[in-house]
């Protein structure tokens, strides 16, 4: 019992000491790859995030199929989804890799899955069988689907607040400022840029925040040769997209540095893996 009480006292002392030093105990973020589905130039709204498994990009069937003008029916007893569009009828079963296309049996190389009550299916298979062209943009994790003669219903359109260009610029600055550091640091750096974009003290676009010289050069690496042509790493794209999709681990912090600031005009918010973040 004595040792148990001593351990608790030491833990409490550590937490108080850490906060006294400006450090806050925080939970490390988990990596999330946000995959975008785009149909005829429209981003598609979904209530279950697409994901990559077994080398395939899975998407929720109903949202993508109905955005393409198809009718989707679900048979709970058989665990079967039926998709009808034009002259095509496709039937698939949860947990199976057998799919019936106009009555003919086809096999895909991975099973149909159910996640959070949604049928998840490899996007390329369903899109091509509905007469679409499909491309995968590996840089920004996007599925690009094109089909002539359809208009995506407004209810399926996701009004994304950033462009792929915004994503790439943000990933570039993350790459040069924290590319070799942890996901937590990369995410925090991305959020500093986004916080500045929303602050009246700084420009109101990601590009202009990065190249802002109003007070001084804000991000020196952005002004070095080659920055504007840089292809950011997948890790930095992932971090930037997480931030753009609303994952924030540093609140409203507007500044960061790898050594403490001497100025008293800023307040230390958090230290993450040796990087100092300030309000």
From TrEMBL:
Presence of the UniProt keyword Signal in the record: yes
Domain of life: Bacteria
Molecular function per GO: hydrolase activity
Pfam families noted in UniProt: Cu_amine_oxidN1, Hydrolase_2
Protein keywords: Signal
Signal peptide feature range: 1-20
Domain Cell wall hydrolase SleB: 186-263
Residue runs in coiled coils: none
Domain Copper amine oxidase-like N-terminal: start-end pairs: 39-138
Alphabetized InterPro entries for the sequence: Cell_wall_hydrolase_SleB, Cu_amine_oxidase-like_N, Mao_N_sf, SleB_dom1
Protein name, as recorded: Copper amine oxidase N-terminal domain-containing protein
Organism: Acetivibrio saccincola
